[in-house]
Design brief:
Blueprint (H helix, E strand, L loop, with lengths): L2 H9 L8 H7 L13 E2 L2 H8 L4 E2 L2 H9 L7 H8 L23 H18 L12 E2 H6 L3 H7 L1 E2 L6
Antiparallel strand pairs: 1-3, 2-4
Length: 163
């Protein structure tokens, strides 16, 4: 009698060919295709946190400071201007910045900072539109949304102690 047959007899089970593979299969080791549920996100900020892109949006004061900086290339102001066409969410209480606002006129920086901060707040909580407007986002859907790239370039920072 084989060792498997003796073990099976002792356990009160029958071994029908296949030996260890049969036992492993019965135990669920070969579960066929594994289907995973994709991770879903309520909004852009939740996705950004999960991906390590930033965990809070810039404050109005931080946006004003970044607008004044001229050392980086492109400057923060240029980054906003270059992404303006993709910043399409409706922002109430402030007027959307236009290309002409980005001339070397420091008086326009206040308007740009107000709009940018409000836009960042709105887009950080952006809900899915269309047929699935009550559903959460998939990561790929967020990545494909035209406002996500400007959001991650313009709005995010990492702050210690924030979740």
């Amino acid at each position: 009698m084989s060792t498997q047959a003796i073990g099976a007899a002792a356990a009160g089970t029958a071994v029908i060919g296949g030996g260890g593979a049969t036992i492993a299969y019965a135990a669920g080791a070969f579960n066929g295709e594994k289907k995973t549920t994709p991770k879903i996100y309520e909004n852009f900020l939740e996705y950004a946190k999960e991906r390590g892109l930033g965990n809070v949006i810039l404050s109005l004061a931080e946006i004003k400071t970044k607008l004044a900086e001229k050392t980086n290339s492109p400057t923060y102001k240029e980054t906003i201007k270059d992404n303006l066409n993709n910043m399409t969410s409706t922002v109430t209480g402030v007027q959307k910045s236009v290309d002409g606002d980005f001339a070397e006129d420091p008086n326009k920086d206040e308007e740009i900072s107000q709009f940018t901060h409000k836009w960042c707040e709105v887009v950080s909580k952006k809900k899915k539109t269309g047929n699935g407007n009550d559903k959460s986002w998939l990561g790929a859907e967020i990545e494909q949304d035209s406002e996500f790239d400007p959001f991650q370039k313009i709005c995010l920072k990492t702050q210690e102690g924030q979740q």
